[in-house]
Amino acid sequence: MTIRNVIRRVNRGIVLAVLLVLGLIGYLVYDNARFNNTEKDAIKNMLEEYASVAGDLNILPDQERVPGKKPSEEAVKKKLEENRAVLEKYLTTLKEYESQYNDAVRSLETIFKENAESCAYVTDCEFTVTSVKNLKKNGPRHALADIDIKVNMKTIGKPGFFTMTGEQSTSGDRFYVYHEKGEFESEPETENEIDTKTYTYSWEYSLYRAQLEKTDGRWKIASAYSSSYSMGKLVEE
After folding, report:
1. Does residue 94 carry a pLDDT above 80?
2. How far is CA 38 from CA 25, 216, 222, 232, in A?
3. Which of 229, 198, 218 is nearest to 43 (CA)?
4. Strands 174-178 and 184-188: what pairing?
5. Residues 171, 118: contact at Cβ < 8 Å?
6. Which of 60, 97, 144, 196 has the smallest number of Cβ neighbours within 10 A?
7. Beta carbons of 79 and 60 less than 8 angstroms apart
């Protein structure tokens, strides 16, 4: 093999390497542009769509929400079954025990069980996605985002509720009621006493660094953790 042939082969290899690098750069530029132009909108639309139906996950039928009385086990079971169909549409489902879907199913089971014991009910619930920040690609079919959400509810008693990804309480060992004079007043819970009062509740929180995954052509929430720097406001009607 002559030196000229060696040089030709080396040059050909360099050219092929350059073409491969240029092709990779071109693909990455195209993929990022497509994500920015198309996938971001799809993610935001999915989150807004989920928020529009998530409130109903907390609400039993009218006839089951009787102040001071527990709901029927059949009604709770039916509601949990109906909720699963909604959750599957917006949360990732894996064969493994741990997935956002499975976490949500367990959270809702706990919420309805505890609410039934205290005869506490969510009677109206509305979630609003107020902003989606720091939305960026995080690998093939994955993205990260910080999602700000506001919830407004009406309740009988002080129930727990499902936040779109997990559990949140409107009460505790001590809870805070907002009075007309513009101050929060702390009051102790009375043990074993059924609260039949009606309240409105509002809270703003974030799903920080929520992991989103595109599966079967649809974006879903794969993992998310709620955080909040504000206290929920519970107002007696």
Report:
1. no
2. 20, 16, 20, 35
3. 218
4. antiparallel
5. no
6. 97
7. yes
Integer Rg of the chain from CA: 25
149 has pLDDT over 90: yes
For residue 62, what are the CA distances in angstroms to 59, 123, 126? 9, 8, 17
In sequence order, what are the residues at sequence separation of 6 or more whose Cβ sits closer than 8 angstroms to the Cβ of residue 31? 137
Query: Measured between alpha carbons, how far is 195 from 180 in angstroms, rounded to an integer?
Result: 21
Assign 212 to helix, strand or coil.
Answer: strand
The pLDDT of residue 21: 62
Phi and psi, residue 178, nearest 5°: -90, 125
126: phi then psi, degrees, rounded to nearest 5? -135, 125
Place of tokens 């699963």: 84
Q: How confident is the model at residue 176 (pLDDT cuts 50, 70, 90)?
A: very low
Q: Report pLDDT digits (tens) over 8-45.
A: 665 666 766 666 665 556 554 555 566 567 899 999 99
Smallest CA-to-CA distance from 237 within 154, 124, 140, 174 is with: 154
Q: What is the pLDDT of residues 66-90, one digit of tens each?
A: 999 999 999 999 999 999 999 999 9
Report the chain's mean pLDDT, rounded to a whole number. Answer: 84
User: What are the φ/ψ torsions at residue 64 (nearest 5 degrees)?
Assistant: -90, -15
Q: How many beta carbons lie within 10 A of that of residue 122, not counting itself?
A: 25
86 burial (CB, 10 Å; 0-12 / 13-18 / 19+) is: middle
Tokens of 50: 């989920």
Residues 6+ apart with CB under 8 A from 96: none
Pairing between strand 184-188 and 233-236? unpaired
